[in-house]
Write a structure and sequence with these properties.
With 336 residues, this protein is mainly alpha-helical. The chain has helices at residues 33-54, 62-76, 80-97, 107-119, 124-143, 171-181, 185-197, 201-205, 237-247, 267-277, 284-296, 301-308, 313-316, 324-331, and strands at 2-5, 8-15, 18-27, 212-213, 218-221, 231-234. The chain is 51% helix and 10% strand. It has a three-stranded antiparallel sheet, covered by helices on one side. Strands 4-5-6 form a three-stranded antiparallel sheet, with helices on one face.
Length: 336
């Protein structure tokens, strides 16, 4: 946790019922917040790692392992969204496994975890995320000699086949959603841009006015989930007009609440718009819809992979969901 003291950012965290705190020696302003957070995480990792090496393997509980793992993960994963997904799952897992020793957690406990989460109304895609995070935690623990096996490998992990994010919007659903989204202009424009360019939500929200090339009628994604995410995308007339208008109003196309920041989440407005429209979807649905529509229009998969920012064709298949009509039309081509 960061707090301001005497004009400097100070950190504070707890481990093994002990408090650790100190100064980052950085000015307590928004411009230095991320840098101060990195200093705090580095300090936490140093403390956690030193303490971890002194802990006997058979004594390590899940609740002890989680903060050590998260301190390591914060520096290991260069995508903050990946770290946040792991952190959210780790907290849910800690509520279930708590003070159980890592060596005591086996396939039986994991099957019970799946049952409890489903009984609580949690979707399989979330359980899948949790078990993926648990597997990464056990892999980390194995490297520290805290455990010998990874029990996640011994169970069936729920498939993501039925995950809501694989949905593709119909024309009617698209119209209903955007009619409802007009009440929140930032959501409306971000979702339209995703649908027209195939960007990930995080990529669209982080766009700057300087990423827009008016003369070339294009926009450049400067950074993203993978190295291949950096790409320049042509803008169709609707997308061009949308970007041109937003680029002239702010340094970020989708500004955040604090000056000099961009929006990071639109989950609340999106949920309300989707409910009002009667459409069950997530923001990633617009990216899936973009990919599927281009595939059905005959765009070659290597080109589609480049547009989506993927390094291989294998990843593209997760985003393309041909309709029955498209499959029927394809097979009828043999009739001449």
């Amino acid at each position: 946790m960061l707090r301001s003291r005497n004009g400097k950012w100070h950190y504070r965290f707890h481990l093994d019922k002990r408090e650790f705190s100190g100064s980052t020696h950085l000015p307590a302003d928004d411009a230095h917040r991320d840098q101060a957070q990195a200093v705090a995480e580095a300090k936490r990792f140093t403390v956690c790692h030193g303490s971890a090496l002194r802990r006997r393997p058979r004594d390590v509980s899940f609740s002890y392992a989680v903060p050590v793992f998260l301190a390591w993960a914060h520096g290991e994963y260069n995508r903050i969204n990946t770290y946040q997904r792991l952190a959210i799952s780790a907290k849910a897992l800690a509520r279930s496994f708590g003070d159980l020793k890592l060596r005591e957690i086996g396939p039986g406990q994991l099957e019970q975890y799946k049952s409890f989460r489903r009984a609580a109304g949690i979707k399989d895609v979330t359980i899948r995320h949790d078990l993926h995070a648990l597997s990464v935690i056990f892999q980390f623990a194995q490297r520290l000699k805290w455990c010998d096996t990874n029990p996640v490998r011994e169970i069936d992990v729920p498939s993501d086949k039925e995950a809501v994010r694989t949905k593709v919007l119909t024309a009617a659903e698209e119209a209903a959603y955007f009619a409802a989204a007009r009440r929140h202009r930032q959501l409306h424009d971000a979702a339209r841009l995703m649908l027209l360019t195939g960007m990930r939500p995080s990529e669209a929200l982080a766009l700057k006015a300087t990423d827009f090339n008016r003369a070339a009628r294009s926009i450049t994604v400067q950074q993203g989930k993978t190295p291949n995410a950096r790409r320049t995308l042509a803008l169709v007339p609707e997308a061009f007009a949308l970007v041109e208008q937003r680029a002239s109003a702010s340094s970020f196309l989708f500004p955040g609440q604090r000056p000099g920041t961009h929006a990071t989440k639109l989950c609340g407005p999106h949920g309300r718009a989707a409910t009002a429209a009667g459409v069950d979807c997530v923001l990633y649905t617009f990216r899936h819809t973009f990919a599927t529509r281009l595939a059905e229009a005959g765009v070659p998969l290597p080109t589609l992979a480049a547009l989506l920012g993927h390094a291989s064709l294998r990843c593209v298949h997760r985003y393309v969901h041909p309709s029955q009509a498209a499959m029927d039309a394809a097979i009828m081509r043999i009739a001449g």
